[in-house]
Design brief:
Keywords: Acyltransferase, Transferase. The chain is of the alpha+beta class and about 120 residues long. The protein has a single domain, classed as Gcn5-related N-acetyltransferase (GNAT) (Aminopeptidase), CATH 3.40.630.30. The protein binds coenzyme A. Coenzyme A binds next to strand 3, helix 2 and helix 3. The site of coenzyme A has 18 residues, from strand 3, helix 2 and helix 3.
Length: about 120
């Protein structure tokens, strides 16, 4: 993660805080932006904190951040097999724009998704 964050244009949005441990990170999304295009590099929520809207909120905050940095479009790749993430992204306004065959180590295809940040 620290290597990724060292790359130019790379940044993260965190969701932290719980009653027990205010400093705990419950989820994060990492992205990279080059000129007016941004890309989600990775997104994860602690298993015990899933289905509480954290990933949706992180993506909404990321969209605001990227727009503020001048991005007009947000891209990502998701495994065809990752039904949870695909449902999440669809609900957050992403639509398919392409596919990479056998992109992942398990042989699954990657779907390339994008959403506009200008509407
Ligand atoms: C995918 C992931 C980030 C979702 O995080 P989350 O905080 O649980 O997601 P949200 O609570 O914001 O869910 C929003 C919507 O996404 C969909 N969704 C999320 N998890 C789902 C699941 N397990 N099955 C089906 N739909 C799911 C639902 O439509 C959900 O809305 P609902 O709860 O009102 O039905 C989380 O499961 C995760 O960290 N998975 C492992 C890492 C990963 O796959 N990252 C994505 C890589 S591309």
């Amino acid at each position: 993660m620290s290597t990724l964050l060292g790359m130019p244009g790379t940044f993260a949005v965190l969701e932290s805080g719980s009653a027990d441990d205010p400093a705990a990170v419950r989820g994060f999304v990492m992205a990279r932006q080059v000129l007016d295009e941004a890309e989600v590099l990775t997104l994860a929520v602690l298993p015990s904190c899933r289905r509480q809207g954290i990933a949706s909120a992180l993506l909404a905050r990321l969209a605001v951040d990227c727009r503020g940095r001048g991005a007009g479009r947000l891209f990502l790749e998701v495994s065809e097999a990752n039904t949870a993430a695909r449902a999440l992204y669809e609900g957050c306004g992403f639509a398919g724009i392409g596919r990479r065959r056998a992109y992942y180590a398990d042989g699954s295809d990657a779907r390339v998704l994008a959403r506009s940040l200008t509407d």
